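Hi Q.,

Before the meeting this afternoon, I wanted you to have the nickel (II) ion prediction in hand. No need to reply - just skim if you have a minute. The sequence and ligand are here:
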Amino acid sequence: MLLQLSTWPEVENYLSYSTGIIIPIGSTEQHGPTGLIGTDAICAEVIAKGVGEATAAMVGPTLHLGMALHHTAFSGTISLRPSTLIQVVMDYITCLAVSGFRRFFWINGHGGNIATLKAAFAETYYHLANLNIPHADEIRCEIANWFMCREVYQLAKKLYGDQEGSHATPSEVALTQFVYPDLIKTATLDTQVASGYPIYGAADFRRHYPDGRMGSNPALATPEQGQQFYQLAVKELSNSYLEFIAKA
Amino acid sequence: MLLQLSTWPEVENYLSYSTGIIIPIGSTEQHGPTGLIGTDAICAEVIAKGVGEATAAMVGPTLHLGMALHHTAFSGTISLRPSTLIQVVMDYITCLAVSGFRRFFWINGHGGNIATLKAAFAETYYHLANLNIPHADEIRCEIANWFMCREVYQLAKKLYGDQEGSHATPSEVALTQFVYPDLIKTATLDTQVASGYPIYGAADFRRHYPDGRMGSNPALATPEQGQQFYQLAVKELSNSYLEFIAKA
Amino acid sequence: MLLQLSTWPEVENYLSYSTGIIIPIGSTEQHGPTGLIGTDAICAEVIAKGVGEATAAMVGPTLHLGMALHHTAFSGTISLRPSTLIQVVMDYITCLAVSGFRRFFWINGHGGNIATLKAAFAETYYHLANLNIPHADEIRCEIANWFMCREVYQLAKKLYGDQEGSHATPSEVALTQFVYPDLIKTATLDTQVASGYPIYGAADFRRHYPDGRMGSNPALATPEQGQQFYQLAVKELSNSYLEFIAKA
Amino acid sequence: MLLQLSTWPEVENYLSYSTGIIIPIGSTEQHGPTGLIGTDAICAEVIAKGVGEATAAMVGPTLHLGMALHHTAFSGTISLRPSTLIQVVMDYITCLAVSGFRRFFWINGHGGNIATLKAAFAETYYHLANLNIPHADEIRCEIANWFMCREVYQLAKKLYGDQEGSHATPSEVALTQFVYPDLIKTATLDTQVASGYPIYGAADFRRHYPDGRMGSNPALATPEQGQQFYQLAVKELSNSYLEFIAKA
Amino acid sequence: MLLQLSTWPEVENYLSYSTGIIIPIGSTEQHGPTGLIGTDAICAEVIAKGVGEATAAMVGPTLHLGMALHHTAFSGTISLRPSTLIQVVMDYITCLAVSGFRRFFWINGHGGNIATLKAAFAETYYHLANLNIPHADEIRCEIANWFMCREVYQLAKKLYGDQEGSHATPSEVALTQFVYPDLIKTATLDTQVASGYPIYGAADFRRHYPDGRMGSNPALATPEQGQQFYQLAVKELSNSYLEFIAKA
Amino acid sequence: MLLQLSTWPEVENYLSYSTGIIIPIGSTEQHGPTGLIGTDAICAEVIAKGVGEATAAMVGPTLHLGMALHHTAFSGTISLRPSTLIQVVMDYITCLAVSGFRRFFWINGHGGNIATLKAAFAETYYHLANLNIPHADEIRCEIANWFMCREVYQLAKKLYGDQEGSHATPSEVALTQFVYPDLIKTATLDTQVASGYPIYGAADFRRHYPDGRMGSNPALATPEQGQQFYQLAVKELSNSYLEFIAKA
Ligand code: NI
Ligand code: NI
Ligand code: NI
Ligand code: NI
Ligand code: NI
Ligand code: NI
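Predicted structure with the ligand bound:
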């Protein structure tokens, strides 16, 4: 049940029996020579829809822009500053809290979003406590990183070993191939790929990761593997969502 | 050519022959008893993709959240504050300007976005002029409201007359029906529908427009009409885009 | 009745029978080789005072600084950033709302202010709804652009035709001549004057509008015409104000 | 020479021989039962014009809104928050610095502005140093409080002794009477007037200063005294301005 | 009684009989060739602790970073922007106001903090009035500048005369020597030392005060004098604090 | 070598051979019935000083206020909002980057700071890249959480097992006892202690963790254990710091 494809009376009706909502958040950032710039948003969105179907939960509009400042030396990356993203998250939650939602389950496709999301949640709880919204103190947010699902992680290790890397990974590329099987990109990938270097500013990042990959070999990805990741993530996050909204 | 479905080298290549980009911006807001909450984003996005195909232009990720504070008394509406949206637009443009983009063509689906977008563009030009980006003074933004295209407007008047109204209009509903023919919602619509009352705060808006419609009769909409609107808008905005990027 | 020339008990007394206030907003920006930098503020203020007298309404202090970032490549222009102006408008309205004012009639002298004002009103309604002010949901703002009054517009077209242009217009210059008949400036004006080019950043604006005028011939202006504009604007906006505060 | 009454070429010409500008800043706040709400702006503006004439200096538009949050429990007071005023001052100076101004002489009519102005200047110097404006490190601001001019202060003490008080003072009221001799307000003033209590929040202020005066007896004011204050302030601040711009 | 060295039940107990708290604020800024960069924080903290002991008052954590933008051209200076410091002060007070504190006695070691602190207090009172905190209108802040204590000032004048200067003064250096007798720094100090030049931006400051001192001769300082300053300041500020919290 | 206890020429000299600095950041928050409110700052500071001595590194002033909004329902907690803390960190780093520092090693005592610090670093790199600071792209920050040092963690598990918990832990309490052996607090601690419940808003936190502890038994702590933790943390973080500044 997608919020964007619902009417307001349908939302009102939904709120009569559930106060939970699933929110996909991705990023718009370079994913190496073959990965789609929208990878993180595509993955978060498709899994969120799957979880929404499996649990009959409402799914809100995807946040396509995340915190990817360190990727901005590559063409096409669009990042919010953390202070902007905090305001966006605060506005997003506040509006829905006014509507009556109380459980916000963020399905996240980008590791770089986690810190800012956590900061945003803390600031939002505090902000809501200062407004006159009934039950403001019952608002809860949870981040669910699909790529950190136990079975997703295990499958990635099994399939790719160290070549999974940490950015532009074969697992996320596989998932986008599953979603867009006609959009499988190829390029000659240097077999030597940088890894392990910490993330600082954008120019520094590009100096150390010249083609954008971090230790990964996305050429290993296939759409079939993508489907497996999809199914594992949907299963695990559906359970997580149901536990989240069931908690007293 | 969708930015989200491109790789960074593809974007770099695109920039070697064009600096233009199309950006869809919608809103997530009530659209009456039968209109989809995502109507404005759906319309902007589908038309932007059509224009992108027709003109071989890059299309950036859709901004699903716009300025809809006056709709927030209806369940499911999610609005950014104007000051938040200004920061989002500033971040969006700045990142792409650093990449080398210089012509930003915003295809807009929501009248309530126009004022804040204009404010944001002004602030962004000024901001960019203070940074060290080469050619910052050549950055240009244009807003293209699909619903204000001459032929779109004329067709809406011809088909619906006064029942077009100004929010939750049959024309925009028709367009969403064209995109999602399986999602045509029905409800008993009061034949008396408020209109002409100005927009102030959210509670006031709901008092005056109790079911969310502003003078419209969305029951008149059909998917076939939606297709017509789509084609007219794509044609007209494709011309607008080409003129925009051709201008010295 | 000018707020600045009243005492607080007088304001308190005024609030016992009216909650309306008129607020002039102008700009401090170049107006071509012969137009006063304060033109927009001068025009808004004098008309606001006229309307205030005609309707026995309170008139607040003029905002001399508006949104004129695109004029900042010309000496003497002072602009607020949109995000600053939003805060100013929010503070202005909030203080008066706490006093008990509920109808804010903004007489505006500068087209460039409109977008930011609209954004500011939306943000202010939302802000006030979150505070504990009684009747916050009854706060209403209206923008009245004197230069868009029907009869003002018609007279300008009749007197000047296309030479009215869109910035540093003979109509606004005439009005300042009516106010300051001793300050009529002259300069050799190029008969070729740029027009029709959209507004982007400041450097770009000056490149396209090298003397600051936009399609206008302010040499046509006379103080007598200014008086006519004054009278037409005061008459029309007095009616608008009375309708505004009478509305339920 | 008033900026608002100049054209941009006149400003450009002025900048060829002087980089100094005088900026009046007042406040819009209760001034007791008989004082005008605009007292501080009226005083600052008239003196600034006098100094501008005496020294052939440019005078910028008056900031009518200052930092008067502690007066907001009285009807008609309009205050900017300090954080808003800082942005306004930063925008004001930045625009003029881009034009080429380097010496900003702020003639201030309200004690409550001083702290925020000082904070704003510091933040502005820092901000300008980060931009690409030539000679940013030569920007200087000075606050000139007309009511703290030595001879003004001495005359007030001589004329009114302790009844000068510290807010809604007879000296400032006298000055407004000199400017607006037809607007002399009267009211029965309690001979017992609170004084010496520190300033905290707005509700607290009104509890301790129930009619808004702080230890003053504005009934002592006459327009003739106002003229004397005017002349003393103009003389002293003209000297201050000339010294300020002459300093290496 | 230091807040940092207390438990929350101890704070709760303290609040049952007192709502006062002492907050030391310093700065991290150059203090000439021999003065410690932390001088202002060291002085404020040690005196605050002394006052806390003498009056059995709670002492909050020291704010080490103040408003020292004009010193940032010297290595090691760390300053907050005024707009940042305002937010810090607002957060500091708001949290403690929620706990139940109502009297905030700021012991300040740096003249450059005063303006921003005053601005911050005004903004905080206003902010708190908009929240739902009980007794928000009873929150009061007071700044106590130890170096402006009457007897401190007199002793400094007596000991050092004009060589006290106004920054990197022997009195504050003496106080740090009393606290850190093993850290007495020496350097050849030019006997000619700049003084009397106003403070503008950082580069300008360093041009006029090349070694950082403002008219002072810190070589005159001794730890014994530091002890005297300490005792005088603690005595006077203890009285001030007790008066402050006793006031109705 | 403490920045606060150095002179600016000493800092300048230090910069001639090192660009590294250690910055302790803690929090001011409830630590259960017996833990000091300043625990996190005390631990971070003492370890930072130890590392500074062991590595001859400069140590900057401690940030006593961190992100502890979820603890604000307990008396005495003082938290910055994440958006405030981001500005503080940005100002802190920017000033030192202007001085010439390039390696910022943040020794952190509070898990709740990590997310906001990471967000702040990202925003700061981006901010610095837009300024004119030489070598802005070489600025690097690293967070070192003393409580996550491998041997610290192992010792805590060995000494306390599950009773280590995750807030108001015996390990951090032991460390404060080592620093302040005279300040060992006792209280009757409920043997049943909540644990495992996620962190949302402040009121919710207190409902679930009524005495502030999260699964811990701080009564197990001894000063001797504190010394062990101190030594292990200093040893490990000294190595980390040296690696950090040695990295190309
Ligand atoms: Ni990714
Ligand atoms: Ni719509
Ligand atoms: Ni104009
Ligand atoms: Ni006054
Ligand atoms: Ni000092
Ligand atoms: Ni802790």
